[in-house]
Amino acid sequence: MLLLLDMRTQARLSVEDVHELLRTSGQFDGQLPARSTLYRKLSGVGLKNERRLIEAIVRVCVPDAQCANTLREQAISLLHQAWSEDAEPDRPEPGEVPDDGGSLAELVRVQRELIDTQAQLTAALQTATEAEKESAKSRALITTLLVLGALGRPAAGRVSTPSPDGASYAVSGIELSRLRTRLAAAEAERDEAQRVARAAQHRLAEAGNLLTAHGTGSTDPAGLSAPTPIGPVEWPTTRADPAGQAAPADPLRSSCQALPDTTAIEREVEQGEGVLSFEGHERVRSLEQDPELAEVLAEMLRLDPDGSRMESVIDGAGRHLLDPAHTGRYLWSQLTKVEKTGLGIAVYHRMQRELGLADGLHLDFMVAGHDVDMKFSRGSNWMFPPELQGGLCLVVRADDASGLWSIGLLRVRSELMHAGSNRDGKRGLSAQGREAIHWIHSNLPLPEHALRRLSADTVSSIFAKASGQARTEELFLQAQLTPITTADLSAVTMQADGNKRAREARRRLAHRGVLVLNGTRPRDVEWAWGLGLPALEPSTWMSVRLTPAQPGHEGTPTIMLDGTPWCVAHPEDLEVPLPTAAFA
């Protein structure tokens, strides 16, 4: 694994780059592992059984044939060494727990498996999210092409698809076929990552039941603390506020229903002329009948094809009102009634600035030359005033308790409203009105924050510490293998520069064997990759306890610190101070 990492580093290739080179090289004849599988293989999971893959990676990373042959022989030699170690009889591990009839040994085994499963789950969830964003981009582009095609208008520079005569907008079957292939690949990768994540959740649940059966709770008889699990609702650390409001059962829900069924539409491509026929497709026909709505929809998809910009808008608005550096708050439920009212206003201002939307003549925004209003809700109970009847409105909903957000477009009409109104004459949407919303992005995840993922008891133990530095160190101890954001640090330190406390915690926790990683440091990113941890975003931190690699850690991903291999520690491993290189 380290040999392949060194080759990738020298070649300046990411895992995505390697995957693309392997795909274009044609060495696997359609049997190339998915990108999520390649991530796991390059992290050391099952790598020793992938000789063909290793040889292919050497060839694409090292262009010089002679050097590639040398490295290939070295890799094969390391594989033979790994196979011979597997054939050796089991050796007793240092510090082996005393015999108590097998109960304690079984518990330690479960705890070790728990740590490995947690890392796999986090990596799978991250891969699923990235793949969903990629598929969202493809669906958005397909939908934009279809909308403009339905209108019979050129893209006006907004979409790089040729228009044969400048008057009509033709979409070729070949172009749609390429987009459809890209979409299918991204959705297949997402589905595989979701399958791996659900399998890991199931294993976590089984491990939790076994720990409970031993009557240990979260600590074993020898005082070895079990790590805080990071899975969704099947495990205690769900997104929940101190009052115990839990997250929905499936955080992996996708936004597939946000856009029209492109597969059904593509079947209507006329192969002879290569032009789309939209007869019989109700959703697209409704866009034909409302060209202003269609143009606004296409423009919003162009401005934010995967939803990442609106995601940052909503998350930033929430953090602004929570003001964690001064209040220590981290949940929207902790906002006052007045502040909750201001959340929609904050989203409006940030949305206008992020997407570069001009002021409207009579409503909030000017989008694609049309007046558009914006309504925000934490549920789905938007209220529309009488003067908005007949107008276009962007409806946004988001809630950090569920961790999901959506944005859609609606033509406000009286027949879509409830009959009753409030004292201001505002009316809400009926069931028919909610069905009339053209969803641009639906049920996408908000950015994760560690304090929202931890249990209420764990968060209480963190905030019980007297100083900001002590709370920061407790956060890194309690939330290992969990991405920690600057908002989390601001909340626990109640200071604007929480990163300063994190850097100090990096030095102070090293004597306990805890490595604190920062996504802005290239060396830390490589260490996280070498240990098989989830990829670090530039603005996030992550902690993990390490131990020198010894017999019993065979096959575990390792990194080199002062010439010694280190790996993720198991619960029964003693605390070993990290060398200076880990926190210099």
TrEMBL record:
<dbReference type="InterPro" id="IPR015210">
    <property type="entry name" value="NaeI"/>
</dbReference>
<feature type="domain" description="Type II restriction enzyme NaeI">
    <location>
        <begin position="296"/>
        <end position="574"/>
    </location>
</feature>
<keyword id="KW-0175">Coiled coil</keyword>
<keyword id="KW-0255">Endonuclease</keyword>
<protein>
    <recommendedName>
        <fullName>Type II restriction enzyme NaeI domain-containing protein</fullName>
    </recommendedName>
</protein>
<dbReference type="InterPro" id="IPR011335">
    <property type="entry name" value="Restrct_endonuc-II-like"/>
</dbReference>
<dbReference type="InterPro" id="IPR036388">
    <property type="entry name" value="WH-like_DNA-bd_sf"/>
</dbReference>
<dbReference type="Pfam" id="PF09126">
    <property type="entry name" value="NaeI"/>
</dbReference>
<feature type="coiled-coil region">
    <location>
        <begin position="176"/>
        <end position="203"/>
    </location>
</feature>
<dbReference type="InterPro" id="IPR037057">
    <property type="entry name" value="DNA_rep_MutH/T2_RE_sf"/>
</dbReference>
<keyword id="KW-0540">Nuclease</keyword>
<keyword id="KW-0378">Hydrolase</keyword>
